[in-house]
């Protein structure tokens, strides 16, 4: 049996996502048996990463219910600045937080959690470029490859992806 068999994960997407921060988790979690649905503003739409690697969304934000999923992933890049403008995205992240379901965020993805107003008092990391934003939202920022605070798993950048996915998987399998 694969580690994540019977687990459903939302992978959020918008244009200019950080290619590795979407694709590495997507492939890793699928190899572990998880069902990872790529969810963006539109269904069956092509979104292009910062470095030109495309992905096609499975569903639109409005096509799914967060309650049907076990976890959510937010990639970095410039996509988080767009993702945080969708009320549906913020509602999904808030729901996952309320239900204590795993939320994965890497690099600039912290912007989405900031806009969802779920970081006060939480230990997290991110790319150092948004450290002030994270702290101004009430988070306790740590310069570590991966930080786990209950169900929130955060990471800094692509070199930390291995540690990030191991920690995210551990939190997801503990649920």
TrEMBL record:
Keywords: Hydrolase, Protease. Residues 7-168 form the DJ-1/PfpI domain. PROSITE patterns: PEPTIDASE_C56_PFPI. GO terms for biological process: proteolysis. InterPro entries: C56_PfpI-like, Class_I_gatase-like, DJ-1/PfpI. GO terms for molecular function: peptidase activity. Belongs to the peptidase C56 family. It comes from Geosporobacter subterraneus DSM 17957. The keyword Protease applies. This is Protease I. The keyword Hydrolase applies.
């Amino acid at each position: 049996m694969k580690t994540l068999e019977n687990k459903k994960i939302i992978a959020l997407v918008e244009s200019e996502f950080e290619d590795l921060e979407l694709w590495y988790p997507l492939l890793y979690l699928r190899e572990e048996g998880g069902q990872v649905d790529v969810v963006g503003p539109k269904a069956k739409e092509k979104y292009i990463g910062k470095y030109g690697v495309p992905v096609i969304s499975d569903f639109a934000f409005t096509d799914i219910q967060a309650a049907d999923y076990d976890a959510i992933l937010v990639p970095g890049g410039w996509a988080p600045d767009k993702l945080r403008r969708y009320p549906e995205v913020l509602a999904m992240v808030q729901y996952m937080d309320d239900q204590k379901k795993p939320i994965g965020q890497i690099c600039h993805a912290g912007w989405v959690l900031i806009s969802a107003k779920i970081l006060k008092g939480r230990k997290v990391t991110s790319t150092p470029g948004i450290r002030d934003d994270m702290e101004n939202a009430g988070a306790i920022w740590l310069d570590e490859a991966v930080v786990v605070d209950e169900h929130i798993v955060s990471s800094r950048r692509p070199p930390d992806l291995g540690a990030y996915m191991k920690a995210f998987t551990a939190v997801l399998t503990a649920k």
